[in-house]
What we know:
This protein is an alpha/beta fold and 315 residues long. It contains eleven helices and 14 strands. The protein has a six-stranded parallel sheet with strand order 3-2-1-4-5-7, with helices on both faces. A three-stranded parallel sheet has the order 6-8-12. Strand 1, helix 1 (12-25) and strand 2 (30-34) form a beta-alpha-beta unit. Helix 1 crosses helix 7 (215-227), helix 2 runs parallel beside helix 4 and helix 6 (186-196) runs parallel beside helix 8. It is globular, with a radius of gyration of 19 Å. 2-amino-3-ketobutyric acid binds at residues 78-79, 117-119, 142, 171, 182-184.
Amino acid sequence: METILITGAAGQLGSELTLALANMHGGDRIIATDINEASACKFDYCRFMPLDVMDRQKMAEIVKTETVTQIYHLAAILSATSEKNPIFAWNLNMESLLSILEIAKEQKLNKIYWPSSIAVFGPNTPMQNTPQDCVMDPNTVYGISKQAGERWCAYYFEKYGVDVRSLRYPGLIGYKSMPGGGTTDYAVDIFHKAIEGEDFECFLSEDTYLPMMYMDDAIKATLDLMHAPAEQIKVRSSYNLGGISFSPKEIHECIKQHYPNFNISYKPDFRQEIADTWPDSIDDSAAQNDWGWQHSFGLEEMTKDILANLPAYLV
Ligand code: NAD
Ligand code: AKB
């Protein structure tokens, strides 16, 4: 029986992944943690503990006293917010990961999950169908922290046998929780504006293509990776994960089929520079070959599903 601790559980990804893990393992096996104590009310189906991931001692104590066997380490500062306070973001993203890898080594945990991002790629990376292995020269602090984090994960696996697994998520799009300060956040906000009957001002230009993924696919990929036999996991830095690729203009056109009066305007800001260094689309054949990954949702299926379900979340 596993006991699973999740850091940053109250965030965009954590809110959905924690529930999926509770459905799979039982709520009493799940310890949701977050620095945001007020988020405790979200977790009536499992246990919740306030935890700042910078507090290594408290984290180690919880792991020991609760006999935690797996950690999903989600807490991080995302790309746009990181650029506003680079040193703080670097310290949080790196120190917390190193603490968790050390705890996993010392307390011999079964498995660790840590998400990387398409932000590991940079201006000299091939933009179309970006390969698993290629030039990686990220020029954002978030991307640099994710790239370094990938190397640390591979290091702890190779040197100490820590079974740490990772995915390079594209921009994640869901309707159950709001995004937390990234460059891909527009693709969530746009649905809210459409449903609220407001015009949408996009912070990226109309033809900026980025790799994206519906949250259901992201949760499935995460659980598939974490439940695959260890010998199938050949990439110990982080797996490329492809899904959909679209521009603001294309998602607007797709939503307009359901909301014909929905208007968009474009006012690119500092996030445009970040988006311009990220891939347009991702080659995830390593994930397909190693553990059978396939995404399910295209742009139209995702749009229909969000527009059908989001209104209930807004009341
Ligand atoms: P988010 O910003 O929505 O959530 C992060 C959570 O971490 C928040 O609930 C926040 O309160 C918590 N947190 C912040 N500082 C903390 C601290 N010191 N101690 C404990 N908790 C703290 O982020 P998300 O979108 O849910 O992302 C989760 C992970 O997935 C991150 O590692 C992120 O880099 C990665 N990722 C996300 C996306 C995406 O599109 N959402 C894409 C690629 C990778
Ligand atoms: C961000 O935009 O920072 C995240 C990511 C792709 O890592 N959504």
